[in-house]
Every structure is written in C-alpha cells, then in structure tokens.
Write a structure and sequence with these properties.
heterodimer, A: alpha+beta, Aldehyde Oxidoreductase, domain 4, six-stranded mixed β-sheet, B: 157 residues, alpha+beta, Ubiquitin-like (UB roll), DNA polymerase, domain 1, 2 domains, binds FE2/S2 (inorganic) cluster
Chain lengths: 696, 157
C-alpha cells in the first residue's frame, strides 16, 4: 500500500454537504414529546416550594422524585444531581423537565411554574478547595533555601466556551423494558453507565446510540450524561420518546466550559542563569460540582514545566468549588491554561534575569532520556530542535523579533513550544477504561469495525477505517464504521484525550493483523483485542509519580500580529506551526485538526471573553461571545513531521488537542512583543492592551 | 393564521400558519426539510441559510409572512444542480468538512457568493462567508474549496 498519510475523501463528507446527514435535532419519532428545563435563578438557595400550573392533557413534569436509582450523574466525581433535590448550587441548575407535544405550550408551562427559594451566601473565587494534589521532583525546597535570586510570576486565564455549532441534544425512549438514549455525544458508554445508575437498572436494559455529532471539542464528553439521564427518566415515566434539545442561549449559559485558572510560579535562578528550581501552584475553578475537574487539574499540573527539563520541581494544585456553572472537559483539558502560563513565565524569567529568552528556552528544552516532570522518562526521540528551526525559518522569526522589538513598532511575533501527553493520564487506560475492540468479517468479506468511538468532525470514521483497510490490505470501501450503538459495539472507551487513533486505532491495527492471519474468504470471522499497557510504564496514582503518559506529541507555533496603537485591536499577520504527531494517518485530516485547533487556541488567547458576575454568565449568545469568522482567520502554514511512535498504528500518536494548546501563548507573546509590555492574563483583549499601554 | 403562498424548491406552496412563525420552523417542522440547521436561532451563525430569490437569508429570523410571493430554495433542491456538483466535489477535495453542522449553510453561502461574483478574490470569499460561522475548520479549507469550485466551475456562474 502507498503511504498511509496520503489523503483520501472523508467517509462522512458527502451526506453532510448535501444536508442529508441526520443530527439529533433532525430526528422525529412517533408520539414524540418536546422537553424543556426549569432552571435555578439563584447561585445558592434552598428550594422551599414549587407550584405547578394546572397541567393540560398529555403534558408532564419530571423531577427528582421520578428517579428510580441514584440522583447523581455518574462522572468521575459523583457530586452532580440529575435534578436538583431541595437545593440549588448555581444559576441554571436543572430542577425539572416539562414535556409535551407542543414546544410552545411546554415553554408556557415552564414560564408559569413558581419556585420559592431561600437564597444563601454563594461562594466565588479561589477559597473553597475540594481537591488537592501535589508532587515533587528533585529537591526544590533546599534549592530555594539557598537561592540568591527568586523570580515570580502569576498568570490567569478566563473561561472558554466550546461553541460546537450544534447545540447539545438527546432523545430518550422507552420500549419493552429497555431505555434508549440517542444523541450528540463523544462517549456512548459514559452515558450508558450513567443512565444504568440513575435508573437503578441492569446493563441490558439501557442502550445508547450516537447520532451524527455537530462538533464537540470536549463539550460533549461528560455533559451529555446529564441530559441523557434526564431524558431517560422522562421517557420511562411517560412511556413516550422525549426530545431534549438546547437552544443556543441555554447551551452557553448552562453547559460546561474550560476552567478559569490562576497559576503562580516561583523560580530559583542559578548562577549560570538557568532555572534551578521551580515552584508551581495551580488554582482551578470547577464551578458548582467537581465532576472531572480533578483530572483536569492533574493534566495541568503534570504540564507544569512545559517542554523544559527542570531538575527541581514542586507542584501543587487545588480545585475550588464555586456557585457557578460547572466547568468540564475542553480540548486540551488543563494543558492550555498551563502552557499559556509556563511559556509566558519562562520569557519573563529570561527578561528579568537579563537573558535572551530563546537561548534560555533552548538550554532547558527536554531531550530523549530526560526525566519528565513526574519523574517518568521521555523514551522516544524528541525532534523539537529540528521543528523549532523549521518554524524559525518559515516565519522569519529571528529577523522579525529583532525588528519588532524596536520601540514604536507595533508589530510582534511570538513562538510557543508545547507537548501533549497522549491518552489518559497515568494508568487510566489500564485501570479504568480497559478498551475492547472487535472486527467482524461477514460472508461477503466486508469488515465492520466494532468500537464505541465517535465521529464528531475530527475524522475518526475515515482514519480508523483507513488503519483497518491498510493492515488487512483490502480497499477501504470494504471496511464499515457506523455510529456506535452500545448494543452492537464493545466499550473501546471514550472519544477524548487524543486517544482515538493512538489507542483505539492501535487496537484496531492489532485486531486487523489477527483477522488477516485467520482470513478465509466467504467465512464469518470475529476477532477481539484488549488494551494492554506497555510493561515499562509505571505510575503511582496517589503520588503522581512515574510515566504520566505512554507518549507525547510536540508542537511549535508561531504567530505574528500587528496591534493598532489607536484602537488596540490585534490583527493576525501570520501563523506557522510544526507538529510531531508520530505519523499522520491522513495528512489533510491532520491539517484540518491543526488549523481548527490552532484557531481555537489563538482566539482563546485574544478574543474569547466570557465573564461570570455574581454567578451569572454575562455572554448569552454568539454576538456577545465572539468566535472567529472567516474574515478574522488568515492562511496558516503547517508542517507535519514524520517521527513514528513504535506502539502507535503506523507510528501515529495523538493529534486532536495538541494544536489548540500552543495557540494562546504564541499570540500572547506576539502581542507582548508588539506592545513591549508584559502580558499575564488571557484573553488579551483591546481593553487589557489599552490598560497596559496607557498605565505602563 | 394566514394563508401564505410562495415557491419552495420549485413548487407552488401554500401554508396556513401564523405569519410570525420562523421560516426555519416551517421548513424543518412542517416540510420535513432538515438540511437547514439551527445553530443559534438569532441570525448569528448562518447554519439555517437558504436562498430567497437566490440571495442568502438566515431562515431563523425570517418570519413566514415575509416569504409570501418569494422563491425559496433549500439545500435539498440546490443539491440537484450542476453547480452543486462542482461545489460539493470541491468541498470534499479540499477537506473542508468536519462536523458538518455548518456545511449546508456554507454551501448556500458559496452559491450565493459565486452567483454574484463568479471569480472572487480570497478577501471577497472571506467577506462572503462572514455570516456563516464554523467552529471546526478555521475556515481555510472552506476558502480553498470555494476557490476550487470557482476555478472548476468556470462558466457555470
Ligand atoms: S440558526 Fe439562523 S443564523 Fe444561526
Ligand atoms: S464543520 Fe463543524 S462547524 Fe463547520
């Protein structure tokens, strides 16, 4: 077969272009009821009473009393109720559903329900720690004791809202003792396990089917479990299909977002100017429920020294509960916050100690064999040296930074270096996920991939088919990948953490090799593969010690800007990036991931403003919350390196999150270069730039 | 309630409905034409784009009453045309489609743009897409698809 990276048409494009692909909102079932959510208007309150209007025939109310099993959404930390029971902890918290045949009538019912609250004092800010982690590498404490010079920095990041173009939606239905949830999602088995628990029923009584998913970016990782449970309870109660689709405003105000953060550094400067020891403190705002915030915190903390090798490291972090909308998974999962902070800090450290930032960064750049932040080992070749040189040459970084650093020049250029641990943190794959995939060959020699991973635009359907077809040596048309249905496919784990190609694709490649050996034309054959962690990986989950990830993808991002000295607006002038993702399974799909991800990362760093005041999200629609338009974006030059990872299929590592991670620091450094002032928070909006330029 | 007449996908159509009903709901709920999507419902994203007298319109903010006497074409009908074949092939070849939710609207925007300006510059393309948001692609591959369509479909527009 020719090079796997050569692009082919995507499996799912034709139907999407023609408008024929069916998303959850397009689905209509017989007798279907529309559901809407009644939500808390207080950040923290006791619910004293709920007065329902006279209910018309065929209309229903569904609340916590209808839940047969546990009133909690099965996420990692089970603190979020399916429906509020007597108290609410954030504005927008779901209290009940109203459902009925006409949406307009349902809305009238919701509007006429009277809830009597007894408000109490809400908690905001970084005061109530609910998760704490820490780890050490080397002996930072004694270095700090002796240190001659200590440099400090504090960085903060704001919310980021996913704005997947398709709002969240599910349909729940109940038939013959079986509850089915269909919806827009990343993780069918997360929803299945959550619904099983909420209904207090057996695995065999719940089925989850993915509908075409109109974008997700992490926003449809754990959140759809909440809606899935609600729709399931409502379907069981009413015996009718329940369609629960959010409107955009509701989606923006009440679904999970990227965690706001604050990250503090202290660095002990050695005599030679190097960073001898680094102390890092991470603050994450989880919102009202912890959910998976503890895992987001871990990923942020593990990235504390960025792509740099620093011998003495002391990292601690906390998740803080606040009476605000819960935060959750978003492409990058804690890493974008940390990479913004560490990339800015190492620059600021260099400048304060009178060094060239690039030289300092190169001096600390990790190489193969170095210990990682958690005392694991970078086992595979690191080709960042080449990648950095490529990025510098492509962008003209050296000449530009010299020129733009002159006073009065409002152009700027910034470069970020990032890595991204591929797959779940630590032994998550081995201990918690335990992925299984199957391949089934039919009598007509068509092969179906049986796995639970979802196509959400990232190209999973095409790349996974390509891997199977490539290994089997058959045309890709002979390989089928359908949207997962938990009644038909095993649990190959969630579609998250840049694991789909590397981990699931790796299992598919292994299964394909097995099938190839057993291949007999015209015969039905089923093969199965289960995940096995490489033997050399050791991870201590409590102490956060050892190999946090089996492999790392790497990236260099350069952004050039011009800042208007009049309006303080930032114009993008150039974007260049070089990525090492092992091997591209399909080059064009990877470029698509790179362009989309980097664009989200850059706008996270400069334009995407979301604020929460007294527990209320201030941006309610796409006019208030600005994502880039075609006119805001500019062409990008992207290079994908070949550095095959021995355990990935065809050498592939993770790719989905990596490009987002470096966008914000690259653009923030470019703005910093343009205005000659230190940036320590994102988004770097015109208001913030004005403040910096006017007040110095 | 009022009787509203218009042409929908080439056919004379009469709808007896509240004239303030959104055209998007008429198309999706009454006619079963689900190619136009609801991304925001407030005229901000373009996912609901349709052609009204061959000009792009956000059907989520167009009341049914305003459709009276107009010629409305949705992706379902446009996808039967030669121009569509050129555009859709170009989108596939450029890799412009990710989650797809914005794409029917983008195709409508592409047709509306090329119909007015068969050989747009890159800036004109970006301008022509300004009412259509895409969160997945970063737009460059969509821009490339339109350039490709303009080139290959020379003479069609
Ligand atoms: S749904 Fe009409 S513009 Fe967004
Ligand atoms: S392809 Fe997903 S929004 Fe455009």
């Amino acid at each position: 077969m020719s090079d796997i990276s050569k692009s082919i048409p995507k499996s799912d494009s034709a139907g999407k272009i023609a408008g024929e692909t069916i998303y959850i909102g397009d689905m209509v079932l017989d007798d279907m009821l529309h559901a809407m959510t009644l939500r808390s208007v207080h950040a923290k309150a006791r619910i004293k009473s709920i007065r329902l209007p006279e209910m018309p025939e065929g209309y229903f109310i569904v609340d916590h009393r209808d839940i047969p099993g546990d009133n909690c959404v099965n996420i990692i930390f089970d603190d979020m109720p399916v429906f509020a029971d007597g108290k609410v902890n954030y504005i927008g918290e779901p209290i009940l559903l109203a459902a009925g045949p006409k949406r307009k009538k349902v809305k009238e019912i919701i509007d006429s329900i009277e809830v009597e609250y007894e408000p109490s004092e809400p908690v905001f800010g970084y005061s109530k720690s609910v998760v704490h982690h820490e780890f050490e590498k080397g002996d930072a404490a004694s270095v700090f004791c002796k240190a001659e010079r200590i440099i400090k920095g504090s960085y903060s990041t704001g919310y980021q809202e996913h704005i997947y173009m398709e709002p969240q939606g599910v349909i729940g239905l109940y038939e013959d003792n079986k509850t089915t949830v269909i919806g827009s999602m990343q993780c069918p088995y997360y929803i299945k396990n959550a619904v099983v628990r909420t209904l207090g029923t057996g695995q065999e009584n719940v089925r989850v089917i993915q509908a075409a998913t109109g974008g997700a970016f992490g926003g449809k990782e754990e959140f759809p479990s909440l809606m899935g449970c609600q729709a399931a309870v409502a379907a069981n109660k009413t015996g009718k299909p329940i369609k629960l689709i959010y409107e955009r405003t509701e989606d923006i105000e009440t679904t999970t977002k990227r965690h706001p953060s604050r990250i503090d550094f202290e660095a002990a400067a050695g005599e030679d100017g190097s960073i001898e020891a680094l102390r890092v403190r991470v603050f994450l705002d989880s919102g009202a429920y912890i959910g998976l915030s503890g895992v987001v915190l871990q990923r942020a903390m593990i990235a504390a020294s960025g792509v740099y090798t620093i011998s003495n490291l002391s990292v601690s972090g906390d998740v803080y509960e606040t009476n605000t909308v819960p935060n959750g998974a978003f492409r990058g999962f804690g890493a974008p916050q940390m990479f913004f902070a560490i990339e800015m800090f190492i620059h600021h450290f260099a400048i304060e100690t009178g060094q060239d930032p690039l030289a300092l960064r190169k001096r600390h750049l990790a190489s193969m064999g170095d210990p990682t932040s958690t005392g694991g080992t970078f086992r595979d070749p690191i080709i960042m040296g080449d990648m950095i040189q490529k990025a510098i040459d492509m962008s003209g970084y050296d000449e530009k930074i010299a020129e733009y650093s002159k006073p009065g020049d409002h152009r700027g250029i910034g470069m970020s270096w990032v890595l991204h641990g591929c797959g779940f943190t630590g032994s998550g794959e081995q201990k918690h996920i335990k992925a299984v995939v199957r391949l089934r060959k039919e009598k007509d020699d068509m092969v179906t991939i049986l796995a639970a991973n979802t196509e959400m635009g990232q190209g999973a359907m095409t790349t996974l088919r390509k891997i199977a077809a490539g290994v089997l040596g058959i045309p890709i048309e002979k390989v089928i990948y359908n949207n997962p249905d938990t009644d038909l496919v095993p649990d190959s784990g969630p579609t998250v953490a840049s694991r789909t190609v590397m981990i699931v694709g790796g299992l598919i490649a292994r299964a394909a090799r097995q099938l190839k050996e057993k291949w007999v034309p015209g015969k039905e054959i089923l093969v199965e593969e289960r995940y096995r962690q490489p033997d050399y990986i050791e991870w201590d989950e409590d102490k956060l010690r050892g190999d946090a990830y089996p492999a790392y993808s790497w990236g260099v991002n350069v952004v050039e800007v011009e800042v208007s000295p009049v309006t303080y607006e930032v114009d993008l002038k150039g974007i260049w990036a070089v990525y090492d993702i092992g091997k591209a399974i399909d080059e064009r799909i990877i470029i698509g991931q790179a362009e989309g991800g980097l664009s989200q990362g850059i706008s996270y760093g400069m334009t995407e403003v979301m604020e929460c005041r007294e527990g209320r999200i201030q941006q309610r629609n796409m006019t208030d919350y600005i994502i880039p338009t075609a006119g805001d974006c500019i062409p990008m030059e992207i290079v994908i390196m070949d550095n095959p990872y021995p355990l990935g299929p065809y050498g592939a590592k993770g790719a989905g999150e990596l490009p987002l991670v470096g966008g914000a620091p690259a653009v923030a450094l470019a703005i910093e270069n343009a205005i000659g002032k230190r940036i320590d928070r994102i988004p770097a909006t015109p208001e913030y730039i004005m403040e910096l330029m006017e007040n110095g | 309630m009022a009787e509203i007449r218009f042409i929908l996908n080439g056919a004379e159509t009469v709808v007896n409905e509240d004239p303030t009903m959104r055209l998007l709901d008429v198309l999706r709920d009454l006619m079963g034409l689900t190619g136009a999507k609801e991304g925001c419902g407030e005229g901000e994203c373009g996912a609901c784009s349709v052609l009204v007298d061959h000009d792009i319109v956000n059907s989520c903010i167009m009341p049914l009453g305003n459709a009276a006497g107009r010629d409305i074409m949705t992706i379902e009908e446009f996808s039967k045309t030669e121009r569509y074949n050129v555009i859709s092939r170009a989108y596939e070849d450029a890799g412009a489609v990710q989650c797809g939710f914005c794409i029917p609207g983008m195709i409508i925007a592409t047709e509306s743009l090329l119909n007015k300006n068969p050989h747009p510059s890159e800036i004109e393309i970006r301008d022509g897409l300004s009412g259509n948001l895409c969160r997945c692609t970063g737009y460059n591959m969509i821009v490339k698809a339109i350039q490709l369509a303009a080139e290959r479909g020379d003479g069609l527009w």
